[in-house]
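From the thread on structure requests for the teaching lab: each student submitted one protein with a one-line request. Submission from student K.M.:

"Model Lysophospholipid transporter LplT from Chitinimonas prasina, tokens only."
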Amino acid sequence: MNRGFYTILAAQFLSALADNALFIAALALLKMQEAPAWHQSMLLWCFTVSYVVLAPFAGSFADSMHKGRAMMLCNGIKLFGCIGMLVGLPPLLAYAIVGFGAAAYSPAKYGIITEYLPHEKLVAANGWLEGATVSAIIFGTVLGGQLAGPNVGAWLATTPLSFLSAPIFAIVVLCLIYLAAGWVNMYIPKLNVELKPIHFDPSYLIREFWDCVVKLWRDPQGQLSLGVTTLFWGAGATMRLVVINWAILWLGFSLEQATLMIAVVAVGTALGSVIAGKFIPLNQAFRVLPAGVAMGFMVISMLFIYDVKLAAFQMLVVGALAGFFVVPLNAMLQHRGHMLMGAGHSIAVQNFNENLGILVMVGAHAMLVKYFSTPLTDNMHGQALAYFQNLGGIPPMYGIIIGFGLLLSVLMLIIMHRYKRGVAAGLMHD
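Reply posted by the TA:
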């Protein structure tokens, strides 16, 4: 890997760092505004919906210009959404604008990897890219929790910035990080690749995009890879919400402390990604499928853990299993997509399916929280009482965790069965 690749990693790290910190800051802002609990799930939903709506157009946009320039423009959109949150736009709407920029950004950031490197380096490159992304999740989650937490609020009260709340101060800092990401984008190498002219006819773009969707789903290796990554990202987005509520209720954590558990999951994902990148070649990508089944059962075991050290270890293992099984399959999906339709279009199809999975799973979580939450009880510990008293009740955690874990394991078993059938039919290699 050379300097240009590390520049791409730096740009991705800064942008993802701000995205993840902004999510925590927006949660704190919603809590400060006493928004109902289901708004927390809808925050992710609003961010993600752009990935689905823009999918027919994002790939064409990414392939029409040098990827570094596309990434810089998209960072500008994210910055605009961040500023919108500062000037009083509802957090759901402002975070949706940030999601709009992220949706257009994604085909460029992944597409440049397939253009920049030979296919035999894709698993290793994805390990690095996932490592940078996961590091951004870790530091972004911690940064957002700290900046929007009570300690910063108490410090602000002693400074000339006392007119700012902690969540607003956090958002100001994140605007500066988006600016830094845009500056790094300027140094991403311009590659000698054929740029495809962008079409402005929506009907043409939708037809072209749908042809790409069908083509990738009909490819045996692409189909299974897409199924796994769709499940992974839907589960991963929902897991952030589940872990926060679980840590508050089961472990007695505050929101600031609960975000550290998300960071532990991310550390595990980074470790799993590195191990997969080092030991799993592209032609053996499907051998990691059992890790997904194990991850589902590990999620269910959350119900029986009340010790903080044991909980941290469990979150580390859950993250490691996730990183281990998703990185090789993500690389396989990128390789097949690049071979079938080009980098930008391939990533747009991937984003469409994966974020449709997020919308379904996060939307289901929001509905469960809205319609099945139970009233607070007098014997609740202080942190849970303080956190949930303005949110309308306690989420149905037993049903959410058991259903979530079983869904993950059962779907991974079905995917493993389809893989074995594909090997028996000679459509894939064992």
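TA comment: The chain has 16 helices and no strands. The chain has a mean pLDDT of 82.
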